[in-house]
Amino acid sequence: MRHKEGNKREDIIKAAIKIFAENGYHHAKIAKVAEVANVATGSVYVYFENKEKVLLEIFDEIWKDMYNNLKELVDKKEVSPFEKFDALVDIIFDKFTESPEIALVMVNEQNHLLTHKKEKFTEYYEKFIELGVSLIQEGIDKGVFNSGIDLNIYKHYLLGAFRDLVNTWATDRETFSLNSIRQSIKYFSKYGLCKNCM
Amino acid sequence: MRHKEGNKREDIIKAAIKIFAENGYHHAKIAKVAEVANVATGSVYVYFENKEKVLLEIFDEIWKDMYNNLKELVDKKEVSPFEKFDALVDIIFDKFTESPEIALVMVNEQNHLLTHKKEKFTEYYEKFIELGVSLIQEGIDKGVFNSGIDLNIYKHYLLGAFRDLVNTWATDRETFSLNSIRQSIKYFSKYGLCKNCM
DNA sequence: TATTTTAATGATTTGTTATTCAAAATTAAA
DNA sequence: TTTAATTTTGAATAACAAATCATTAAAATA
Q1: B154: chain A residues, CB-CB within 8 Å
Q2: Which positions on strand D lie below 7 Å from a protein C-beta?
Q3: Taking the CB of the first residue and of the last residue of chain B, which one, N or C, has fewer CB atoms within 10 A?
């Protein structure tokens, strides 16, 4: 019995990330993805039901990985809420340092997919958010984070801020250093605009 | 010479906002836009060169209007940086209160258009951002805003946060009250997560 | 009223690209 | 070496939708 050669499925995912990032999902051609992956056009449909499923698979992998990292962090008893918050920021940035292309695909396509979903979006996304929220709640409970925060709103605030900054960096890596953005997010989020306000 | 009847150009813009918001730009059909606008498909091409130009025109109108409002605000001498910041938030929210559809189109399509631009994106966008930055710089200069802020990064942070929150609200107006989001943005931005930190 | 000019139309054309599928190639087992 | 099972292929197809343009209709002008 014949075995599948190499790892075509993985090659296709990698190629798709590259092509989706370059042209945006809607302008990306499956034929081009196949070409970059070094497989025939038809092979893409051996491994994936359709174009959208390729995109969903990309998101599933990203969020699954980030969720697992965050889970490990949240469970640590000895780490303070402040350190955990910084580590949360790092988890996201570390993921995108691996591949700016992933960042671009995410920023550009995730929202669309979430709001116009036909297929189910990865469960790990929701799970990641919930863990992030619990991390901040822990800080509030311990009296070190501001209790006037509506977490349900804050999570969108922070996610959105992330999205734009990550996109800014991924689009123009000459101008923006990843590290300065990382530090800035940590700073803004903790201290806000106001000087000596509280 | 024949006069143009009614205001077809405006009807098309309005219909396009509705249809783009419902389906997303890429899935929206010009034929459907024309139908909603009560004109023939071909008429869209009498008023606009192509589909993308319709979208660009929508953004031009939105940002032009918001820019003018912000310009008026920034010039006021007697208003404090804090009040100005709140008013800036209100300018954006007021625009979107007018039409959640506009908010959706903006959140979903602007980024794409900015990063993959063939056509020139509206100048008013950049001008709006610059005014916003100068507003915050004024607060720093007067010693009431935190001077550790990298404005070039902060502007993306805030814009991104806005985008997500506005989208959240526009998508699910049952769960999120516009006013609570408005207040939350003002709060988070000024005070941040940290309690008694500065 | 006749003529000219321009607006408006929508069926048709054109171009694009996701997806299919019959055939070819490859490998494992007999 | 042959056979069978499975993978891979890529040209062909089907579906879709943007954009066109020959035609019609209405207003302005003479």
Answers
A1: 184, 188
A2: 4-12, 17-22, 25-29
A3: N
Q: Give me the residues of chain A with pLDDT under 70, please.
A: 1-5, 118, 198
pLDDT in tens, A100-155: 888 888 888 888 788 777 678 999 999 999 999 999 999 999 999 999 899 999 99
Among the partner residues B111, B149, B180, nearest to A153 by beta-carbon distance: B180
- Provide, in whole angstroms, the distance separating residue A6's CA from nucleotide C27's C1': 13
CB of A69 closer than 8 Å to CB of A51: no
Percentage with pLDDT > 90 across chain B: 67
What's the CA gap between A42 and A40, in Å, rounded? 5
According to CATH, the superfamily of the domain at A1-48 is Homeodomain-like (1.10.10.60)
Query: What does pTM read for this prediction?
Result: 0.87
Tokens encoding A123: 């469960």
By the CB < 8 Å criterion, does B153 face chain A? yes
Cα torsion angle, B93, B166, B116, B156, sign: positive
Q: What architecture (CATH level 2) is domain A51-191? A: Orthogonal Bundle (1.10)
Q: Count how many Cα atoms sit within 13 Å of the Cα of residue B177 in the half-sphere of its side chain.
A: 5
